[in-house]
Amino acid sequence: MLRSIASRLLSRNLFSFPQLIGRGELHVGVVGAPFNKGQRRMGVKEGPSAIKDTGFLDDLRNLGVDVTDYGSVNLQQPEDNEAGPDGERWHKTVLEYNRLLADSVAQALRNTDLCLTLGGDHSIAIGTINGHSQVEPEHQVVVLWVDAHADINVGMTSPSGNMHGMPVSYHLRELAKKVNRLSDQWPQPCLSAHHISYIGLRDLDPGEVRMLKDMGIQAFWADDVERLGLSAVLRMCFEHLKPSETRPLHISFDIDALDPGEAPSTGTPVRGGLTLREGLNIVETARSTGHLRALDMVEVNPDLGNQNDANLTSQAARLVILSALAGYRGA
Length: 331
Fold this sequence. Notes:
By secondary structure, this protein is α/β, with parallel strands linked by helices. The chain has a single domain (5-326), classed as Arginase, Chain A (3-Layer(aba) Sandwich), CATH 3.40.800. It has helices spanning 5-11, 47-52, 56-62, 91-111, 125-134, 167-171, 206-215, 222-228, 230-241, 276-288, 307-326, and strands at residues 27-33, 66-72, 114-119, 142-146, 196-201, 218-221, 249-254, 292-298. An eight-stranded parallel sheet has the order 2-1-3-8-7-4-5-6, sandwiched between helices.
């Protein structure tokens, strides 16, 4: 059944943003990012394949979306497991991979209306947001980060050294002096603290809590969603981010934002998360703004749990993607 969250929201006068619906056929570029060096669980590299195996590409085409599959980004040089200056695991490899990914995302966005990137672990957001910013040099990308984790650590604050917990810090101008980049200083920051909002947080390191507070970053924990209601949270997020033609929207969606009962096959599950219905509401509301230009779907790990767990998680990712790109909710 096709259901448009846009029409329902507008009928309630919750939003006054222009709709993507009615603006002609949407052309989506899909980029695979089968990368796992941002954390320690190997199976997340198979996440893009697991999501594609759900048949979502054909689903999108059947729903009237024009889809170009750009294939997967793979590192051409040998992987370097040397840690960064502050203990960032696989530091050079993570950043070199993301440089390649950024170029692929930028290419997809130059040729299409929206880039969907399938991860891989969440360190790939270093590349996706950088690539998005490359094609919007006169505009300011704004980011909705849907995740159980803030992923804003720097090497000095990270208890694990895993770089899937650091992508946001690489983009923030306020943290520019605390992040260890490549020797040529890639990547350069492209966001300020008021250009990002979080939904679904529930498992942060102490240093991350301090950074969010010190920088005044808008952040809604899972219990905020329960206490305030998702509609109110979304209203505040989009009033804050103000997506527009000159403020294109990027969603980075970690499947662990959902409760493990909805998406068990992920590397760092945290109980008490969003329902699948809430996840769909988030992306459908973002779609209704008419200014969604990029979507990351990350941290699906089909090697964790049993086959039913893997299928449940991949199907959750499929439905989030279909809701974000076509306003579809179905079985």
